[in-house]
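Here's a chain:
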Amino acid sequence: MQNNQRHFVIAGVLVVVSTFLVYWLLDAVLKLPIQGSGQAFEIDQLFDYHIWLIAFLFSLITVFMLYALVVFRHRADEDEDKEGEYFHGNVRLEIAWTLIPLIFVVFFSFESTRVLINITREDPNEYVINVEGYQWGWNFTYPETGLVTQELVLPANQPIRLDMTSRDVLHNFWVPEFRVKQDLLPGFTPQVLRFTPVETGEYTVVCAELCGLNHTGMNAIVRVVPQDEFAAWMNQQVASR
């Protein structure tokens, strides 16, 4: 029994070490774009939880498999007809491998629901923009002025609500730096996407739903600018019409 416990302790330590190494490797390789919206921080935290879980499960399976292959391999001086010690069941182990996955499922369900509620919550100060997707481009309408553009300009640190429709087929609005995305369904009421841009700069909105021959070319420029610059841009656009 003591020998078995020793093997479990050694394998357990190796699992922990391997988990940290695999997480470090995945974190170094799977680089995410900058966090361009306030919602990106919570979403990236969910990604981080999943990477830790992936690293742990990979290590748990791989370490025990390799440990068994190396430590319990057949040796030349051993009797080939000798069988291993027989044991029947382990109640504590069965309870553990039932409860631990259940705890993970409950935790991820709770965190995912909490984040989803937070990133879709209505803000009384949100700025509304109408979005129309079509094969293969985008129209952005600012209801306050009636301005229609093919470039989406947003004020920084201002909650945004996009009311989105499709003219023809299924499309999907996605700016990777904002993390959030939403399908545009033809023939349905506008689909709503909420986010708050926090990093000024130029981004690209892409269609993340296969929509036809020029799907990969269905892009548009997104510019996030300071609020005073946005107001000046809007005044200039309205005056030039």
